[in-house]
Amino acid sequence: VEKQSELYSGKAKTVYKTDDPARLILHFRDDTSAFDGQKIEQFSRKGEINNKFNAFIMEKLAAAGIPTHFERLLSAQESLVKHLEMFPVECVVRNISTGSLCRRLGVQEGLDLEPPVFEFFLKNDALHDPMINEYHICTFGWASMEQVERMKEYTFKINDILKSLFLGAGLLLVDYKLEFGDYQGQVVLGDEFTLDGCRLWDVETREKLDKDRFRQGLGGVVEAYEEVARRLGTPL
Ligand code: C5P
After folding, report:
1. What is the pLDDT of residue 27?
2. Residue of 26, 49, 185, 191 with fewest CB within 10 Å of its CB?
3. Closest ligand 1 atom, residue 119 Cα
4. Which residue has a Cα nearest atom 19 of ligand 1?
5. Is 26 in the pocket of ligand 1 (CB under 6 A)?
6. What are phi and psi of 86, to 5 degrees?
7. 3-state DSSP call for residue 38?
């Protein structure tokens, strides 16, 4: 495939069209952002680590029967993916309480959540990604009820797959965010699964090994991402 013009540039990735209208190229940049883009920093090697980590996880999910947009790595910071029609919603699952859940509901940090909590958010920076439910999604036409059900089904199935994958590497999957889209009438996992969009804690020490190191100014961001990749055996 041949890379063509830029389609969209997000906070950490740039998306390019290709000569095949059904394929896009994702470029994982070294940028890391938090708080609706108010805090931005570049970390050398982060784009490459995220690109390779995402490829590793997407391949695990595909092998477990989840339809994903991922096709193949193209270079250190680029991957080829299917061109989805993205739903403007974020699907979040929480296994342990932290982050915005604790701020919104005043619940204690670090509680085991059983059953896990599922939340939808609207992707809208100007509105600060408000929480929504399935009725908002259907009523405003962001996705159909059938597509909503499929997103929930895949998001929970991914929880089972990844909780055990990470636990095998001594890591607790605290929470994560996924985005889906439509590809030829099917609901397919899009966007990325990286340490920018999930929380992972060391199972023994509960040390944070994810983007919270950046959000909270703890330092050692790239070192933490490399440590997770090393524990999982992700080729970097
Ligand atoms: O901030 P909050 O606690 O709602 O985040 C829940 C999970 O979703 C975290 O793993 C966070 O990294 C991820 N998330 C994300 N992008 C957003 C909001 C949350 O990746 N815009």
Report:
1. 98
2. 185
3. 4
4. 177
5. no
6. -70, 140
7. coil
Q: Is 176 in the pocket of ligand 1 (CB under 6 A)?
A: yes
Strands 78-82 and 85-86: unpaired
Closest atom, ligand 1, to C-alpha of 99: 3
- When pLDDT is cut at 50, 70 and 90, the band that residue 109 belongs to is very high
Q: Whose CA is nearest to atom 10 of ligand 1?
A: 198
Q: Output the CA–CA distances (angstroms, integers) from residue 66 to 43, 83, 137, 154, 179, in the order listed.
A: 31, 17, 22, 7, 13
pLDDT band at 34; cut points 50, 70, 90: very high
Q: Which of 53, 175, 189 for mutating ligand 1's site (highest number of atoms within 8 Å of CB)?
A: 175
Mean predicted confidence (pLDDT) in 15-37? 97
pTM of the model: 0.98
Give residue for tokens 């070294």.
Answer: 30
Quick check: helix, strand or coil at residue 235? Answer: coil
DSSP 3: E
Instruction: State the distance from the centre of ligand 1 to the C-alpha of 198, rounded, in angstroms.
Output: 7
ipTM: 0.98
Question: Could you give phi then psi for residue 116, rounded to 5 degrees?
Answer: -60, 150
Which atom number of ligand 1 is nearest to the Cα of residue 198?
10
What's the mean pLDDT when you consider all of the chain? Answer: 98
> 3-state DSSP call for residue 63?
helix
**pLDDT of the residue at 164:** 98
Strand 31-34 and strand 85-86: the pairing is: unpaired
